[in-house]
Amino acid sequence: MDIQVLHEKVNLIRQHRPLIYNITNYVAMNFSANVLLALGASPIMSDAPEEAEEIARKADALVLNIGTLDGDWIDVMCRAGRAMYALHKNMVFDPVGVGFTSYRLKAAQRIIEECRPTVIKGNASEILALSGRHVMGKGVDSDAQANMAMEAAQEVSRRYGAVVVVSGDTDYIVCGSRLSTVTYGSFLMTKVTAMGCTASAVVASFAALDTDVFVATTCGMMAMGLAGQRAAEQVHSPGSFQSVFIDEIYGL
Questions:
Q1: Domain of residue 244, residue span
Q2: What integer pLDDT is reported at residue 135 of this predicted model?
Q3: CA 57 to chain centre
Q4: Of 207, 170, 203, 188, which is closest to residue 245 (Cα–Cα)?
């Protein structure tokens, strides 16, 4: 993907300020909201069932993230997801730690079946788990390399009709016969919590304004990787990296 395309998409986000509805985990909420604001989007964080359908009608895209999971959240995610699907709006599902427990796997399968997300983004272990393969992971972290999950990603994409992202040192974006890779980034991104969850929110910002979800997803992962790479050129420890990363998202 040409970087000029990324810059054009970023400018669109800043012109239109899409409203991104996030039902995400407690760990990621603050960082995701700050990154979305720096990007130019407008975040709303809510897990209230009473307003799920109403926010879905007003939002431009939805992020569903099962990092801190309970039954009530699953119900809210499904309510919001069904509403977004009925309105033909894009949503990104992040199945955090899906292969670590059977509870997470059942929750992820229910969300996918009921909500039909347009993008499914996970690390290699998570995508392997969704395909029914053996999982190599520790909690929410992956012990598998992204390229080990390529066949699984293609299967998940075909099964659910979604764009699938396998994140890692190289990010792979799959949709049917289409494939793109993103090689920007830094190892420091693995030392800051919620970086992967925030990538899902960034992807949703691009998908909110683009009918080609594959292109939007690639741009979202490029934005994350490019900001991470530029931040790592300036600082060399996780605490300062986090703040400079937000500055670099703003500077896109």
A1: 3-251
A2: 59
A3: 21
A4: 188
Q: pTM for this structure?
A: 0.94
CATH number at residue 35: 3.40.1190.20
% of the chain surpassing 70 pLDDT:
94
- What is the Cα–Cα distance from 224 to 32, expressed in whole angstroms? 12
- Count how many domains the chain has: 1
Token pair, residue 243, equals 């703040």
121 to each of 50, 126, 180, 202, 231, how far by Cα in Å? 27, 9, 14, 11, 23
